[in-house]
Amino acid sequence: MALLDIEGLSVAFGRPDSPIRAVDGVDLAIEPGETVGLVGESGSGKSVTALAVMGLVDPPGRVVARRIAFAGRDLAALTPAARRAIVGKDIAMIFQDPLAALDPCYTVAFQIGEALRRHGTPDERRSARRRRARALELLAQVEIPDARARLDAWPHQLSGGMAQRVMIAIAIACKPRLLIADEPTTALDVTVQAQVLELLARLTREHGMALLLISHDLAVVAQSVSRVAVLYAGQVMEEGRVPAIFASPRHPYTRALIDALPEHNVGRARLAALPGVVPSASARPPGCLLAPRCPRVRERCRIELPRPAHGEGSVLRCFYPLVPRGAVAADMGT
Amino acid sequence: MLRFALRRLALVVPTFIGVTLIAFALIHFIPGDPVENLSGERGMDPARRARLLHEFGLDRPLPVQYADYVGHVLRGDLGASLTTHQPVLDEFLALFPATLELAFFAMVFAVVLGLPAGMLAAQKRNTLADYAVMGASLAGYSMPIFWWALLLILTFSVQLGWTPVSGRIAVEYDVPVVTGFMLVDTLRAGDFAAFRSAVSHLVLPAIVLGTIPLAVIARMTRSSMLEVLREDYIRAARAKGLSVMAVTIVHALRNALIPVITVIGLQVGLLLSGAILTETIFSWPGIGNWLIHGVQSRDYPVVQGGILLVAALVIGVNLVVDLLYGIVNPRIRHG
Q: How far is A168 from B295, CA to CA, in rounded Å?
């Protein structure tokens, strides 16, 4: 059974009679211990998907899903209190801007201790000293130099990388089974990025923790996860295993994202880019959402919305997919 | 932090020079003088008037009088009242507890109601509750103090008879003055009937004086909360699975309080000026009332000294608020 099982997740904002769908029928399953990436441009609905899983979408946002289950429990059916018992314990989340995600008024030890006091072992909930000892352990686990001195540090005394390590320490404090990392390295220096990704990889491996890594950066995702879903305008365009999807993407959008990587543009004056922007959620084209920007667009794409086709460990939402290399003959019939 | 405090203290000197100058100038420029006031309606013969003016030192040029006054102030001598002949400082200190008691409870009223009202309005923004709180606060802020006071007196004192119209305590109670705070002194004396009387006298003036700070605090709390609730650390706190209450109190309110504390500090200064009006309306025997009488009788030392002492208080309170700010906001403390 999948650890996280999402089917037909939609998140709409705005007035009910003219909803603006930030997330539009997303299916996503994550197995225990699996690392999954969610990529897409700004505004493609990555973060909103994560917030919907966490139960942190506030009105006027409305979350609808055929199924949104964690370890077999239907999250949508839970009371807010029952849901809060899972959030922060079994599902933890870290954010894009770690310095903004730490409360400036409290020390590192307090903010780690807060998670322990809420979800920790009975011992940790009772004893402040126990929490402090555990906080120190956690800081060491996330490889913060001079961990003991950092316990009483204030957020404004931390660098971005250190703050993200503290956020990770808070997230793993109660041994979650799923960690959602929303652009965890976007706000960090490149060298620190690599360290934080390495740390995440080590922690998921050691704790058998599943990871949902959200990023606009394909390079980050490629090195960190085993499966990836490509999101565009709130819909999953393509999903597949990492080596395959990067070696031979089948969706024109995935192709365009890969072509835009700087390492594929060596010697060119400008990066290859997909013209245009993500259609605003209030002005959707009637057919395929990519149609106005797609280099391979045909008449059918403009009229009819392609449905996701499920293959072996892959999903594809395109009428005229690219033909994978070495499979030309097999693909001719479709 | 120390340098910050010293810099703040250095600013106090020009402020005081300005205060003495303005207080001196204003009171001397209003028509009339203390002697004219003493003479009453029948007038006074010019020789006697000249002698009295000379006795008070009022026949000298204004700059000389000012220099003389400042010289005395620097030696800690605020002079004596021209009407009661008591030292100004003694009179001030005797009356100040009454004003402090009134201001304190006005502030308690404003904070105890203003913070939750602002929080409620922020949490339920753009709902009826929000509009009600913000509408009431706008009305409270815009209402002239004297009119609001008269409305309350008419309703609660005259119509309903719940509270007395004026004064600090009913005349039949004779409470020994120890601290000068009526509520404390009545309790010390163990006289609960007197305590009840003192409380009933305090309620309306405290509400009247606290209304504007209440409105300001409620609005400030609301806007500050709204700003804080959008912060990433609020979302991160919610991602820990904390209850709405814990997130609101521990994270949102704590951060939202930082600007609110500054506003509360500024209100303390306004409270003292508001007290002058409130004390006059309710015949509250505090320094506001005393200053008004001083102005009416052109009692120069009382007005000048009173204004100087009130200014010192406001400056002191603002200094304390700035230091408090450092305690609430770790970014300043360790900056």
A: 66
What is the spatial distance between Cα A223 and Cα A219, in angstroms, rounded to a whole number? 7
Q: Strand, helix or coil at A87?
A: strand
pLDDT in tens, B154-212: 899 888 888 888 788 877 777 778 787 888 888 888 888 888 888 888 899 999 999 99
DSSP characters over B13-28:
HHHHHHHHHHHHHHHH
Q: How far apart are CA B242 and CA A131, in angstroms?
A: 17
Per-residue pLDDT, A333 = 39
Asked if the interface predicted TM-score (ipTM) of this complex is over 0.90, the answer is no
Residue scoring higher pLDDT (A156 or A322): A156
Percentage of chain A modeled with pLDDT above 70? 94
Is the pLDDT at B25 greater than 70, yes or no?
yes
Angle subtended at Cα A21 by Cα A79 and Cα A100, rounded to the nearest 5 degrees: 70
Give the DSSP letter string of A272-313.
---SS-PPPTTS--SS-TTGGG-TT--HHHHHSPPPPEEETT
* Token duo for residue A95: 């954010």
Cα dihedral across residues B119, B121, B126, B127: positive or negative:
positive
Q: If interface means Cβ-Cβ distance under 8 Å, which residues of chain A face chain B?
A: 54, 56, 81, 84-89, 92-93, 95, 97, 100-106, 114-115, 118-119, 154, 156-157, 167, 170
**DSSP reduced 3-state for B215:** helix
Does the CB of B329 have a partner CB in chain A at under 8 Å? Answer: yes
Q: What is the pLDDT of residue A259?
A: 80
